[in-house]
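Here is a typical protein record:
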Amino acid sequence: MVEQPARKPFSLMDVRINTYPLDMLLPDTITAIEGGPRITFACANPHSLVEAQKDKDFFSALQWFDHVVADGVGVILAAKLKGRFNIPRITGADYYFTLMAALNEMGGKKVFFLGSTDAVLSRIRNRALIEYPNIAAIETFSPPFGEWSDHDNAKIIEKINSFAPDVLWVGMTAPRQEKWIFRSHDNLSVPFVGAIGAVFDFYAGTYRRAPVWMREWGLEWLYRLSKEPRRMWKRNFVSAPKFFSALLRHRFQG
């Protein structure tokens, strides 16, 4: 990973959160794609940090990733309470669109999408081929639902490596995607792997993102709660209070 000593990461619940803005993170990924050290990318929000305290494999995965960015206003607030006022919010979608545009400018690169359903992946592929015509090839795979056997996992890794992508996007929701990348990375021959979860649905158009003004005001969580109350209630009414309770008790280190 390219060293950027000017802006040190900070620790939140013992997970290292990257402090670089998007335009400073991207060069590491480009360097990896061009033959440098491989890079892994993940997002952190209050829910994922709380869940990681109960899931040792998830916690280990988040500690291991090269770039863990602050995706969620709760993480930004936590940083400010720790005296860090220069932490940018970077969503998986932000990184996805920025890197895909860079790949299109470079030309000749290959991208693999792992996760979601065949229908969603088909829409992703069709849109990406139009918007990024200079990307050489795009491949997708919808993995089995539920737990995979070792045989299934080996087949998935073989399929990815045979395609030899420059970028692998994984969209299987947290913590499954982060844990899979953590376990499988040594067997993957991919310069950059990014865990971006809901971005697959956003990009496919099967799930609409919050309006720009809500994102800018830190209200994307409210929009998602209104659209997916059954899925999002735990994040907002269980994980968020636990997260802020920990803040108030000064349980963060670093």
About this structure: Strands lie at 10-12, 15-17, 39-44, 67-70, 110-115, 137-141, 167-171, 192-195. The chain has one domain: 10-248.
